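Async update (no meeting this week)

Hi team, since we skipped the sync, here's where things stand on the single-chain job. The sequence we agreed to prioritize is pasted below, unchanged from the tracker. I ran it this morning and attached the output directly underneath so nobody has to dig for it. Comments welcome in thread, and please keep replies under the output.
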Amino acid sequence: MSTEEKKQSTEKKEKRRLFDETGKRLLREIRPLRGWILLSAFLCLILIGCAVAAPELLGGLVDRLYAWVKRPGEGLAGSLLPGLGLLLGIYALQAAVTYGNSYLLNNVVSRYFCAELRIRLSEKLRRLPVSYVDKTPAGDVIDRMMEDVGNMADSIYGIVEILLTGFLQMFVIAVILFFTDWRMAIPVVLLSPLSVLLSAKMATLGEKHWDKHFNLGGELTALAEEAYTNYPTTKAFNREAELQEKYDALSLRHQRNGIFGNFLSSIVQPVIIFVDALAYIAVAVLGGWLIVHRGLPIGTVVTVIFFARQLSAPLERIAFGLSFVQHVKSAAKRVFTLLDLPEEQDPAGTVREPVRGRVEFRHVDFSYDPAKPLIRDLNVTVQPGQKVAIVGPTGAGKTTVVNLLMRFYDIQRGQILIDGQDVSGLSRAGTRRLFAMVLQDTWLFKGTVAENVAYGSPEATRAQIEAACDCAYCDHFIRRLPQGYDTVISEDSTAVSSGQKQLLTIARALLADRALLILDEATSNVDTRTELLIQKAMDRLMGGRTCFVIAHRLSTIVDADLILVLRDGRIVEQGTHKSLLAQKGFYYQLFQSQYAI
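Output:
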């Protein structure tokens, strides 16, 4: 065997192991539903009882009718009507129990399982590190929570209802067939396992196609979400045709795997019908011979034929159930992969009050990729109330410093201390409550202007909200909106401009009134006049707070108490604006590149 063949064999074994483990876990996941499943099993037994009683009753009616034909007389209707009435009642009971069982499984099993699993996924996402969100397309996560969970719920409904009923009914019918006439039961029972084996083989062949189908579904959702989010950019650069080609190619692969999966699932029924026809023919021929040569009652043959016919129904159910198993395992593997991701470890330490705002970086090393070092031996001390500016070229590590302060990522070496406390021993939530933050990318949710501003301070009064907006110089345009502070806006809203959205996020940070303030390109989306107004407001309100300002426009940080100049993850210079210009070093070069003519 070649190296490539060994590799393929190993991959197949690993995939098989993952699918087997997924199946075992699915059984564990539905344990809380075992009470409802047992109730469903009881209803299935009633259905099986109806399915067994009907042919027996019908066979008896045929024997009576045959006896009357051989010896005509009176009282035929009287002898048949009670049996016909009972037969009608059995079929009515069967219909009612079938409806009740389907309603039970659909509303209790599927919906409960689906809702509970989505809640767990939502809680899981809340505990995952920011690095997962940074690396994973939002559309793929949405697809796992919506499509894959929905497919799991639907398929589990099918598995419980179909396999449970199918196996029970097949077992009971097989037993009754032997008690009715063992000679005609043999061909039926011998051919039945053949159809089950063929069905299982078809279902196994379809699993790889369902696996690819669901993975491609996640990619499709991610691509659609990305295209819609960046719709103006796509239009501006005339990339619609290329995006459509990419979507079409991905959709075609998704469709092709779905077709193959459905084909292998659908071919199961014709195979069962063929095998069932063979059993039906064998029973009919053998039954005719037994009637002629062994004097077997016609009613017995009719009963066996009906039972043999009924055996095809559970076989079809089992076959479809097996295809559902592969379907649900493919979806479940993606869901369980998300549920099994390692979570952030969150210490229980608390921040000492009152918070003064002294921040230290001691020999800090950090990199997103171990092969590409970013922050190396970072040492800096920021005193309470200082305004610290972080500048440097793109990729120098400016935003990374903020990510480390906010505990979005953990450092690989060194210490970050706030008021002498190592943040690695503090809870993440407690650390983040120390900071108010304004990102270069604004974010607004669907809600009123007042709700958006009070996002970090839900207990704030309307007066406090308006005061914060006034300090951020956005009160004037808010009052011009149709409903003022009660106007409903969102991230995609056209009621406010990009610069106004930035002002609202700054007002949100001001209202939070935290001990430390982070401004990451906070003035990147405002015009010069608005920028000057914001700077005045910040100068007035940053007193007593430790402030970290990241900016490419150096004019916004000329009054900073301390400027840290980053280059390749290291602080190459630090000082005030005037002292750094006097050094005529790297900061001087940056300043000259922006403002020298």
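Quick observations from my side:
The mean pLDDT is 78.
DSSP finds 19 helices and twelve strands in the chain.
Reply here if anything looks off.
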